[in-house]
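For reproducibility, we list the full input for the (2R)-2,3-dihydroxypropanoic acid complex.
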Amino acid sequence: MKPKVFVSRLIDRDALDMIAEVAEIEVWGDELPPSYEVLLEKVKDVDGLLSLLSDRVDTTLMDAAPKLKVISNLAVGYDNIDITEATKRGIQVGNTPGVLTETTADIAFALLMAVARRVVEADRHVRKGQWKTWGPMILLGQDIHHATLGIIGLGRIGIEIAKRARGFNMNVLYHDVVRNEEAERQLGVKYISELNELLSTADFISVHVPLLPGTHHLIGVSEFALMKPTAVFINTSRGPMVDQKALYEALRSGKIFAAGIDVTEVEPISTDDPLLTLENMVITPHIASASVHTRRNMAMMAAENLLAGLRGEVLPNCVNPEVTQ
Ligand code: DGY
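The corresponding predicted structure, in tokenized form, follows.
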């Protein structure tokens, strides 16, 4: 008998075909994710689950899926999954690192540039019929070239940001729990051991750390207070890394110059959230990895993880390898 799998959203056709060759597959075809209640029902007798970051995979869900062997998350991040619980139950969890690194770095840099040079605001200015003349004081932004970029978290994505920044003649600082001397040599980036020092020195600050209990609200009122009034803040990691009320206040009061964010504390952000009233903020709907090529690669990788788990093999990209050791 074929193993059963549930795929919680429509993904690349070839990835689905690859899964369908060996498993009985059910795919959730709606644009919106299945509700938690529906997900509980769908996983009842599955061997494998291909989940998205919008699916909460917790103890209750694992209780509802007694045959579950593998959870393959279509994302590099996996804060939507209770890994400790999965490990306890011998369920392997897979993710999709690497393939989305540069695509994510591209959008972080796109936000940085858009915000610094007020591109979105300028577009609105033109469309609203406010372009009356060339003005020496109109829509002035911040220079990117030769400015100082502070990267929080020099992992794969942080490194790619650093490379882009060097191309713009930026001075690059980074803060991380682990110092990376090789990256310092190769990229000419400078390690700052104290986060507060980086926050008060950098012109641009970009966050690239995973969401963990210790990184929740890593940036809040006191961190924004340290930033320069000309600072540009970028978040493409996870929304809860930032205290969103503090971000709003920092932007509204001019404590910082502007922000570009791809993620919010609750996703999607409510349309009446005060952040959306601000001109000095550009927001995108968690699309950092959303290129045709990258999403296909992520889907293929997620399918390979899922199939390996169904076969009882170690996943090519496993976040809890201790399960099979
Ligand atoms: C991830 O993979 O974790 C991103 O947030 C979505 O691509």
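Residues 127 and 141 are 19 Å apart (CA to CA). The chain has twelve helices and twelve strands. Both points were considered when choosing residues for closer inspection.
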